[in-house]
Amino acid sequence: MANLSGNVNLIAGGVQYALFIIFSSIMFFFVDKIGRRTLLIYGALAMAFCHFVVGGVMGANGVSVPEGVNGDVNIVIRVTGPPAHTVIAFSYLLIIIYALTLAPICWIYAAEVWPLETRATGMGIAAIGNWLFNFAIGLFIPPAFRNITHGLFLLFGAFCVLAAVQFWFTYPETCGKTIEEIEVLFSNQGPCAWKTKKGSERLHEEINAVATAQAKGVARDSIEKVIAKDSAQHNEKAGVV
């Protein structure tokens, strides 16, 4: 497709997996500082942009190869020169964005929204659904790319935009929320998803209450130590006298 072959094609394929591992690991340190909705919505929109760029460049500069590129009958369009470099660059950028946003957040969100009594079952359903759709996409892409070529990227870009719209309207923010608060978010009396924010008033109140209690306990211990020390000194003086 981008006129790569041999070891170069193999290395290019390996680079994308390396990028995925590196950037998904980096996101581990920032995921709770940014919030779930922000990463889901803007991640989907950024991925849509990458899909549209790749599809547009391939559609404008691709050359039809009916017999297949390098003998692969599923790839019937070739891009060379600077357009090919653009396709490769935005394909890598797509992997980076996915590793920073939807890849980790989807699993975190799936774990947070289930109540404790059904969380194990819910995560099992999420894992099964993920792999079933991976299997289905693996079967869908070869014939789809053979028949609609660059239009496949435009289709995936449209799906990403629709996903961002769904995230905006139906996915409340769960970052920093207690289990009880998350249950309220998904109840009939819960707020609109786009009105929810990162953090938890209840969680902050509980943390402050614990900190205050600990501070009082430390102060009380300090006072008791001072009293005990004064009593000991007084007893020593009385014994000397």
Task: Give the structure's gist in a few sentences.
With 241 residues, this protein is mainly alpha-helical. Helices cover 74% and strands 2% of the residues.
Write the SSE topology.
Blueprint: H1 6-26, H2 31-34, H3 36-61, E1 63-64, E2 77-78, H4 82-100, H5 102-113, H6 119-148, H7 151-170, H8 179-185, H9 201-240
Antiparallel strand pairs: 1-2
Tell the overall outline. elongated
Arithmetic mean of pLDDT = 85
How is the biggest beta sheet arranged? 2 strands, antiparallel
Q: Round the Cα radius of gyration to an integer and report it.
A: 28 Å
- How far apart the termini lie comes to 100 Å
Question: What structural class do you assign from the helix and strand content?
Answer: mainly alpha
Strand order of the largest sheet: 1-2
Can you tell me the CATH superfamily of the largest domain? MFS general substrate transporter like domains
CATH class of the largest domain: Mainly Alpha
The CATH architecture classification of the largest domain is: Up-down Bundle
Helix content bin: over 70%
- The tally of helices reads 9
The H-and-E topology, N to C, reads as HHHEEHHHHHH
Structure notes:
- This protein is mainly α and 241 residues long.
- The protein has 2 domains: 9-194, Growth Hormone, Chain: A; 200-240.
- Helices cover 74% and strands 2% of the residues.
- The chain is built from 9 helices and 2 strands.
- It has helices at residues 6-26, 31-34, 36-61, 82-100, 102-113, 119-148, 151-170, 179-185, 201-240, and strands at residues 63-64, 77-78.
- A two-stranded antiparallel sheet has the order 1-2.
- It is elongated and about 100 Å long.
- It is found in: Membrane.
- InterPro entries: MFS_dom (IPR020846), MFS_sugar_transport-like (IPR005828), MFS_Sugar_Transporters (IPR050360), MFS_trans_sf (IPR036259), Sugar_transporter_CS (IPR005829).
- GO terms for molecular function: carbohydrate:proton symporter activity.
- It is a multi-pass membrane protein.
- Keywords: Membrane, Transmembrane, Transmembrane helix.
